[in-house]
Amino acid sequence: MEDKDDRRKPKQKSAALCGYPISIFFIVVNEFCERFSYYGMRAVLVLYFKYFLKWDDDFATTIYHTFVALCYLTPILGAIVADSWLGKFKTIVYLSIVYTLGQVVMAISAIHDLTDTNKDGTPDNMTLHVALSMVGLILIALGTGGIKPCVAAFGGDQFLDHQEKQRSTFFSIFYLSINAGSLLSTVITPILRAQECGIHTKQQCYPLAFGVPAALMVVALVVFIVGSGMYIKTPPQGNIMVKVCKCIGFAIKNRFRHRSSAYPKREHWMDWSDEKYDKLLIAQVKMVLKVLFLYIPLPMFWALFDQQGSRWTLQATTMDGNFGFLTIQPDQMQTVNPILILALVPIMDSLIYPLIAKCKLNFSPLKRMTVGMLFAALAFIAAGLVQLQIDQTLPVFPSSTQSQVKYINLMSTPLDVRAGSNNFTLQPLTANEDYLNFGESFTLNLGPGASYPTAFEGAIRSTSVIVPDVTLPKPITFTDITSKPEQGANAIRFFNGYSSVLNITWGDQGFGEIIPNNMSGYVLIPQGAAEYQIKNGLGSVCTYKQDLGFGSSYTLVIPPTFIFDALCDQIIVPVLDIKPNIIHMAWQIPQYFLITAGEVVFSVTGLEFSYSQAPSNMKSVLQAGWLLTVAVGNIIVLIVAEAATLEDQWAEYILFASLLVLVCFIFAFMAYFYTYIDPAKIEAEFAVKEPEEEKKRKSVEMSRNSFHSGSEKDQDTLQTKI
Asked: Which stretches are tagged as biased composition: Basic and acidic residues (predicted)?
C-alpha cells in the first residue's frame, strides 16, 4: 500500500546545476524584485503621507505602522490558503497579482494631476487620492504578507532529503537577495521621489517612486511564472490550519472533561485528542507546538531590531554625517544594515561556521539564535553609550518655568547690558555666545533711561535685537525654535537691520519680504554650501554664502551698514543659536554591526530551523508563525515605550537591552530542553493506516461520548467499559 508520505514526494526531481536545483534561481530573483518593490515603496511612504496627503506627523506615523503590522499579520492567511487549498505555487502567483495591482494603484494615487489642483499645486480632491492610497496599501499588505510564508518554504521544497547542505546555503542566498533588494531600493526610490514631474504643476515625483517598485513587482511575477515547469510543487494537504485548531481544541476540551484522577494519565496533553484524530496528525501538531512554544520569546529580538528605522534614525538626526568624500543623511544610515548583511552572510557561511565546526563545537541552530539575541542587546548598549555622548552636546532648552534670551547689539558703540542678575558688555554687531536663563520676568537695563521690564511665558527661547531708537537703544524680541531641526537640516532666518525692504531667497524657497528691523521665518536647509540671494526694491542683488553642518540654527543679521557690492557676504553677521551636531554618524557603525551580526545569526538560522523542524504539510504555517513574531515585536516597542515613560533616550536603550538579555536567558533555558527532530521519520512512523478495530474503537468512543457528556460519574463508567 502506498505510504502517505510517498504521495507527497515529487515523481521527478528538478534540473540541477552544481548540485543545486535550477528552479531556485527563479525563486531568488523573484524575492529580490519583490523586496525591492516593498522596501522601495515603504522608504518614501511616510513622506508621501506627510507632504502629498498633508497628514500631520502623528497620523502619518499611525497609518504607516498599521500598514506594516498588516504586512506581518496576513502571512497567517497566506499560510492557510497555501497549505489548505491552492498550494504554495498558486498562492504565490495569485497573491503576487494582487500585490502588483496594489503597487499600481499606489502609483496612480500619487499622480497630483489626477484631479484639479489648488494654487499651491496640491490636489483639490484629496479624498480620491486617500481612497486610492488605502486600497493600494490594503492590496499590498495582503499580497506581500500572503506570499511571505510561502516563498521561503517553496524554495526549501526544491531540495531532496539528501541535500541538507545545499538547502542551508539556499536560505543564506535567499536572505542575501532580500537585503540586496532592500539596499538598492532604499537608495534609488528616494532619488526618484526627489525628481520633479507633473503636467500642470511640478511636484516631487511620488508616481515615479511608487511606479518603479510596481514595475519590479511585475518582473518578479513574470520571472516566477517562467520557472513554473522546473519547480517541485508539493500539493496542499487539506485545510490543515482548521484541522490543527480543531485537534488542539478537542484535546483541551477532552482533557478538561476527563480531569478526574480516575482516568489514566497520558504522555502528552495532545494525546487526549486520540479518540477523534489519527496519530499522524497528533504527532504533527506536537511538532508544530514544540516550535511555536520556542517562538514565544522571539518577538523581543524584533522589538529591538525594528528600531533601526525609528529610534536610531532619530538619533542620527543629532549627529554629523559629513564623511568628507560623502555626505550621509540621517535616514540613509539604515543602508548600513543591508550592506553589512551582504558582507556578513558569506563570511558566516564560508568561514565562521566551518571554523566552529572544525573546532568540534556544537553550535546548534538554537545556540546560534541565542547568540544573535545577545548581539542585539550589545547593539542597544552601544546605542545607549553613543546617546550619552550626544546628550552632552545637545542644547539645554528652557523648562516650563524658565525662559532663555540671547542679545544682539546692532548699535554702533559698545553696550553695557544688565539683564536681571547678568551683567556683560556687547561690542557692536556681536551677540552673547550662550543663552541666558531667567524666570518668567526680569528687568533689562541698557543704560541711563533705557530700562525695560521684561516678561516671558515658561519654556520660551528668544532673541532680542538691540537697535537704535532715536537716541536710546531699544530691544526687539523674537521667539526662537526650542528643538533641534529635524532630519539633520539647519534652521536659518534673517534679521533685516537695513534701511529698506529686502527680499531673500534660497534656491526656489523664499524668506519673504523682510521690512526693516524685522525677522523672517525659519527655512530648513540641508547640510552643505548654501547661497542666499538678497535683493532690494531697486533691483540690487547680493549673494551670501554659508557652509552648513547638521542640525544647527542661525540668525543671519543684515546690519545697518549693509551695502550691495562684491563684499556683502563679509558684512552679514551670522549668529549661532543652536550648534551643529559634533558627534559623527560613524559612531553608529558599531551598533549597526552588532545588530546586523545578530540578525544574520538569528534570522537566517531561524528560517532554516523553522523549515527543518516543520511537518511536511505545515511548513508554511510555521513560516507564518515566524513572521508573526515580527508583528508582535513592533507592538512590544509601543507598549514598552509608553509604559516606561523614560525622559532620557539612553535609559530606554538600556531598558530594551536588559529586557532582551532577560528574554535571552529564558530562551536559552527553553532551548536546552528542546530535542531536535526529523519530521520525515516521525511522519513515516505514524503514516501506517490504523487497523479497522482501532477505527471501530474510536467510533464507539465518540458516539458514546456524545451521549455521556453530563456527569463526571457517567464519564468514569464509560472509560471503564472501554
From this structure: 689-701
